[in-house]
Amino acid sequence: MTFQDLRDYINFMSKSGKIIKIDDEVDVNLEIAEISRRATYLHLPPVLFTKVRGYKEWRVISNVFYSIQSVKEILGTQNLEDIGKRFLSSFSETPLTFMDKVKSLPSLLKLGKISPKMGKLKPKESNIKLTDIPAIKTWPKDISPYFTFSLVVTRDPETGVNNLGVYRIQILNEKEAIVHWQAFKRGSLASAKYKEKGITKMPIAIVNGVDPVIAFTAASPVPPGIDKYLFSGILREEGVEVTELDNGILVPSNAESILEGYVDLEDQRLEGPFGDHFGYYTPPAYFPVFKLEKAYIRESPIFHVTSVGKPPLEDAWIGKAVERIFLPFIKLIIPDIVDMNLPEYGLFTQIGFFSMRKNYPGQAKRLMMSVWGSGQLSFLKFIVIVDSDVNIHDLNQVLYAIATTVDPVRDVIIIPGTMNDSLDQASLNPPLGSKIGIDATRKFKEELGRDWPEEVSVPDEIQKKAIEIIKRITQSLPPS
């Protein structure tokens, strides 16, 4: 179903008995984060804090993406891959390359119901300051309170494409905050284009409290060049209602709060430490400063936060949904792939399992290179390639494939001096690190030097008889 805004979602969940209201007074300093984490680990429904110490007018919601099933419910499907297939079916049947299709998408869908629609802004202009908003402190040694699930809205100065990204934001004072966008994120890439044009004040908006489908889109690695409002419209099957701010940025009209201003690209300050999803504190590094010009707030506003830490927390279930939704995209770009598994405990940017239909020698290593050359999959530190009959969502099957097909000298490759996730504390000089690829496929004669041995098996009729006898035996046994 389509939610008009965050309140519509909360009302829907309340009617279903799936909102946990906490009326105890809680503190933004560690308490909200710890309660939220424990709720997520238990797969509890969203938590709505109704009494936040020092922030009388505000309510705070967390744990919106509390399980993979919750994401499916928000997106209105039980098969997430269907979303990616639906997106790709929006293209014409003309056999174009993937990038040709991406470039043609806006014109193909321009008049459709999924395009953004101009609307009236619901939040009202306010003299609120950054320090008046219930930003949370997640871990004891975090440098300050942070916005942890606010959306940073930017516009590409060359293409006009809108981007919504979830970047952590460190509150400095009443009017300033540091935006932690890494070098490969869309916001940072757009900032480089502004600098090339000699523009050092990059217009942005920091938005909080939106329809969870829009929030999900902001956290997703939508292919470059595709407008995230348009992609939200595809997920919602209805266009997002937007309003243009004075600085030219389009924002969701129904957001709970909107902070209009600019990022000063010449004002870089130390951000962090911050306890992130790796489960460690990120050491301080320089990032640009946001400077507030105007604020817009709804009456009795709701502030959306998330608590990060060791998996599986909300980012794990967002990541798992992203894996399924974007599998059709990946298979279009890399046809060798049958399936992929980015395990939640592998943090999505660190470990990836891929299955393939192997047709020729050396194909698995070729596939590794293709994966490392594809979008955010390029940050994977470990890649394991297995045959198509291996269930990559069963770790035991993957381990068995590694144990029975891999000779380390022949089948393991290590690549030094490549880009990994900049939050990876294991790298000597993040984001520069190294990668490892493991070819756990059965080997062709050209790879092994001899024919691959025959696997053990039993004729079908013997299997059938054995199954029938075992079934009869188990049914006759007393209950344990």
Write the layout of secondary structure elements.
Layout: H1 6-15, E1 20-22, H2 31-41, E2 47-49, E3 59-62, H3 68-75, H4 81-89, H5 98-109, E4 117-118, E5 124-126, E6 146-147, E7 151-155, E8 162-166, E9 169-171, E10 176-179, H6 186-196, E11 201-208, H7 212-218, H8 228-236, E12 241-244, E13 250-252, E14 257-271, E15 274-275, E16 281-282, E17 285-297, E18 302-304, H9 314-333, E19 337-341, E20 351-356, H10 363-372, E21 382-387, H11 395-405, H12 408-411, E22 412-419, E23 432-440, H13 445-448, H14 460-476
Parallel strand pairs: 1-2, 3-18, 4-12, 20-21, 21-23
Antiparallel strand pairs: 2-3, 5-17, 6-9, 7-8, 7-11, 9-10, 10-17, 11-14, 12-13, 14-17, 15-16, 19-20, 22-23
Helix pairs in contact: 4-9, 7-8
User: What is the CATH architecture descriptor of the largest domain?
Assistant: Roll
Q: If you consult CATH, what is the topology of the largest domain?
A: Pnp Oxidase, Chain A
Structural class, judged by helices and strands? alpha+beta
Structural domain tally: 2
Helicity level: 25-40%
> First CA to last CA: what distance?
45 Å
Number of helices in the DSSP assignment: 14
- CATH class of the largest domain equals Mainly Beta
Major sheet characteristics: 9 strands, antiparallel
Report the β-strand fraction as a percent range: 15-25%
Which spans have pLDDT < 50 for at least 5 consecutive residues?
92-99, 107-111
| Shape summary | globular
* Strand element count: 23
Q: Nearest-angstrom radius of gyration?
A: 24 Å
